[in-house]
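*** Fold description ***
***
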Amino acid sequence: MKKILITGALGQIGTDLTRYMRNIYGEENVLPSSRKRKEDHPLMNEGDFVTLDVLNYEVIEEVVKKHQITHIVHLAAILSGTGEKNPQVAWDINMNGLYNVLEVARIYDISVLIPSSIAVFGESTPKDQTPQDTIMRPSTIYGVSKVSGELLADYYHSKFGVDTRGVRFPGLISSDALPGGGTTDYAVHIFYEAIKNKKYASFIDKGTFMDMMYMPDALKAIVELMEADESKLKHRNAFNISAMSFDPEMLAEEIKKHIPDFELSYDVDEDLQKIANSWPNSLDDSEARSQWGWEPEFDIASMTKDMLEKLKKKLNK
């Protein structure tokens, strides 16, 4: 029986992932954690929760021993936009926190799944159908830490035999949790503003293509990779995965099919735009498809329809 610890569980992925995994493995076998409690957060009333700072090795070790943890999904991280405002903190949490998790995993024989990001790529990376193995010279501290994290996780596998695995997530779109300061956040904000005000000013410029994924596919990818046959994994940290690639105009056109009078304008954030320009237009995820059967379920049309339906209920519109 798996006993799964989720770090950074109060972020964009963690809330949805906790619920998704509890439906599969049982509430008592999935333990969400975060550095601080948020008493108004719904997870506080949905089963066990622990306060855990990934920068504190002793606390991680104590939680692992007390709850007999067998698997860790390590989500705790500072994202791209937020990281550029405080790179020292981003490096500390993204790298030293990961090191602590890997050390505990090494000592207690725990499997670790570590999401990476398209932020690992940079200006010199091929833009279209970016290969699984390619040049990675990112221009943000988030990207630098994620590249370093991929290498460190691979090192722990090759050196110590730790079962480490990871995916490179594109921008994630969720109808539940709000995003946490990333460059692709516009693709969530646009839905809220479309429903509430029927207009949105995008901080990412027209014609800027980035890979995106609807949260249900992201959750499915984490569980599928965690359950994948280890003998079939030629890669580990981390797999390209993709579902769709679009720019703000394309997303606005899909929204207009459901909200005809929606209007898109632009108020470009030059700092975030610079980050977006360094990322791929689209990813080649053929290795994930061939090695562990990755297959997304949502494209831009089905994602937009589902997202609007869920948010209208959520916002009582």
In short: The domain at 4-170+213-240 is CATH 3.40.50.720 (Rossmann fold). The chain has a mean pLDDT of 95.
